[in-house]
Amino acid sequence: DAKTTQPPSMDCAEGRAANLPCNHSTISGNEYVYWYRQIHSQGPQYIIHGLKNNETNEMASLIITEDRKSSTLILPHATLRDTAVYYCIVTFSGTYKYIFGTGTRLKVLA
Amino acid sequence: DTAVSQTPKYLVTQMGNDKSIKCEQNLGHDTMYWYKQDSKKFLKIMFSYNNKELIINETVPNRFSPKSPDKAHLNLHINSLELGDSAVYFCASSQMGQGADTQYFGPGTRLTVL
Questions:
Q1: Which of chain A's residues have a Cβ under 8 Å away from the Cβ of B25?
Q2: DSSP codes, A1-19
Q3: What's the confidence (pLDDT) of residue B98?
Q4: pLDDT of B1-41, one tens digit each?
Q5: Residue B76 carries which DSSP code?
């Protein structure tokens, strides 16, 4: 079973920030938080990952709470092309697999 | 150049047939995976290979036989196809190391069994 809980769906206005939450209350100390997205039926696309600190790259920012029990993916200026299913995954090196949950279906509205 | 590629993109076949899906990665990674996404969109791991050795087999029927001829390739052969095998199959790769190992996914192969 997935170790993460995400809302099934969210809407966001184009040009606004999209904040996608994820709960992972049973995360262990050496587990990373990963975010992927799947646009239509394409292959999952890596977005960002983090362990303890907040992270930012050209696609998004990842905010991890101090107790590490939840995180938020932020798309700073959502566009229509960001409409996708977003998956939050917790895993550590050497598990040789990701366990996907049901994800959040983000719809960016014009 | 595509990092993780799969062929074919679409595969339509009859029940009982045998078919193969091929995967290649040019990222120099040492670990490759097969995932299955069913009609309800659940993505689930099937197999993991590290340096051509099978590491994970997630209770997949033995009609499914992965083969890794080298670290850059992981093929999936399916015998006696059944209707329930219809799904999208994704290949992925990663480099094992200390800390995180980010997986990169291929575009998928949509298998339809009639």
A1: none
A2: --S-B--SEEEEETTSPEE
A3: 63
A4: 679 999 999 999 999 999 999 999 999 999 999 999 998 88
A5: E
